[in-house]
């Protein structure tokens, strides 16, 4: 079996003989993580664990998706925790913009991977500032 065939079979998660983008992305992430240093792997695991906990607490109806309303509540809570002013307009704009920017499958919700991507882009300065 050639190396290319072995890699294809490894990445073809549903064994349908095709490699869709999601399968390729999952395989690539796995391959990149295996080549990362042990310290980087541990940081990623801790980061992902914290992100899963944040996602679970924001997912109020436990359906595996964050709606714009759930994202608003989560963001308002983070602002309050950071001692920042919470304005309805600011929170609504941020949540709507985040859904538009990170909703890769156009479901109008964020699944965990999309939420995790959002968290990777978060910048902390003077307490809390999410872009």
From TrEMBL:
<dbReference type="Pfam" id="PF13202">
    <property type="entry name" value="EF-hand_5"/>
</dbReference>
<dbReference type="InterPro" id="IPR018247">
    <property type="entry name" value="EF_Hand_1_Ca_BS"/>
</dbReference>
<feature type="domain" description="EF-hand">
    <location>
        <begin position="46"/>
        <end position="81"/>
    </location>
</feature>
<dbReference type="Pfam" id="PF13499">
    <property type="entry name" value="EF-hand_7"/>
</dbReference>
<dbReference type="InterPro" id="IPR002048">
    <property type="entry name" value="EF_hand_dom"/>
</dbReference>
<keyword id="KW-0106">Calcium</keyword>
<feature type="domain" description="EF-hand">
    <location>
        <begin position="1"/>
        <end position="34"/>
    </location>
</feature>
<dbReference type="InterPro" id="IPR011992">
    <property type="entry name" value="EF-hand-dom_pair"/>
</dbReference>
<protein>
    <recommendedName>
        <fullName>EF-hand domain-containing protein</fullName>
    </recommendedName>
</protein>
